[in-house]
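Table S2 (text version). Query chain:
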Amino acid sequence: MIEDVNVQEMLIDVTEDSENSIPIIQSMLNGKSTDEEIAEETEIRLNIVRKILYKLYDAGVATYKRSKDPETQWYIYNWKFEEAKIIEIINDQQQKISKEITQSLEYEEENMFFVCPNGCRYNFEEASELSFICPECDCNMEFQDNSTIIHELRQLKDSK
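Corresponding C-alpha cell output:
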C-alpha cells in the first residue's frame, strides 16, 4: 500500500514533509513502534520523527499506546500505522472530488456564460446586471460556448 503514489501523496500532504514521511511510515510497517526505534532505524532526528508521528495521529492514520517504563518511570509511546484509515481517507477524497465535478457540471449545463477579452467570466445573470461590460477591464463581454467544458467535465465524471 505504501508504494501507491496516491497514498504517498496523501501522506505527504498530511505531514507536510516529503523527505521524511515515507521512511518513518515504512519503519512503522517494518515493526518499529517507538519514536526512538523509528529515529534510530531511519537516521532521522527524534524531534522530526515525533513531529511527523503527531501529524499522522492528528489525521487519524496513526495511533499510539502510552505506557510507563518501570525503570525510568518515563512514558513510552508505542505507535501503530492505521492502513485501513488511509483507504477511508482516499475514498472520502475521491467522493468529494466526484461531488465537486458533478456540481460543476450541473452549473455549466444550467448557465450561459459571457467573457471579456481578458478572460473574466460571468454567468448570464451577472453579465446582464453589469450591462455586459466587464467591471475589471471595462471591455464588452461576449457569449462563451461552454460545450467543451461540459464535455471535459462529463469525461472526468465518467472516469471517477
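Notes on Table S2: Residues 93-159 form one domain. The mean pLDDT is 92.
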